[in-house]
Design goal:
Blueprint (H helix, E strand, L loop, with lengths): L1 H25 L14 H9 L3 H11 L3 H11 L4 H16 L4 H20 L5 H12 L4 H9 L4
Length: about 160
């Protein structure tokens, strides 16, 4: 039993190293908030599947991953590491607002509400008004988005 587990750990380690080597060869290293497909998505998926959110976040920051995986990381870390989730969600709000359509504004507004809840739970509720004020100022030309923020009481 022990040798079987040791063999499984060795195969897992070899497999992860193979994936990392392939990524290095492909030049997949990107900035920490890289949102496009690819990057280290496979490694992030593996670590999320294993429940290792620390490793998943580390791989995502080191080489990027898909939007869906970033959001999975945020959901997985929200209860125990709300600051990590807040940062991911704030970056996603910006990404949504750049789409410049009402559906994206609705989603961004809902996410702003989630951010407010996370900040409140983590003792950082005082940071929310400043973030919202800066977000409104940055996107003041997007009146429909600003209206959504106002409608959720994000002032």
């Amino acid at each position: 039993n022990y040798s079987r587990r040791a063999g499984a750990r060795r195969r897992r380690s070899n497999g992860l190293e193979h994936v990392r080597a392939e990524l290095r060869e492909a030049g997949a290293s990107r900035s920490s908030w890289h949102w496009t497909a690819g990057g280290r998505s496979l490694l992030v998926e593996i670590f999320l599947d294993e429940g290792n959110t620390d490793a998943a976040l580390g791989e995502a920051k080191a080489g990027g991953c898909t939007v869906q995986l970033w959001l999975q990381i945020a959901r997985a870390r929200a209860a125990t590491h709300p600051q990590d989730a807040i940062g991911i969600y704030q970056a996603h709000v910006e990404r949504l607002v750049e789409r410049a359509n009402n559906r994206a504004y609705d989603e961004a507004g809902e996410l702003a509400g989630t951010i407010r809840e996370l900040m409140s739970r983590s003792g950082g509720e005082g940071a929310f008004p400043g973030w919202i004020t800066a977000l409104k100022a940055k996107h003041k030309a997007k009146r429909n988005f600003v209206k959504r923020l106002d409608s959720i009481g994000a002032q």
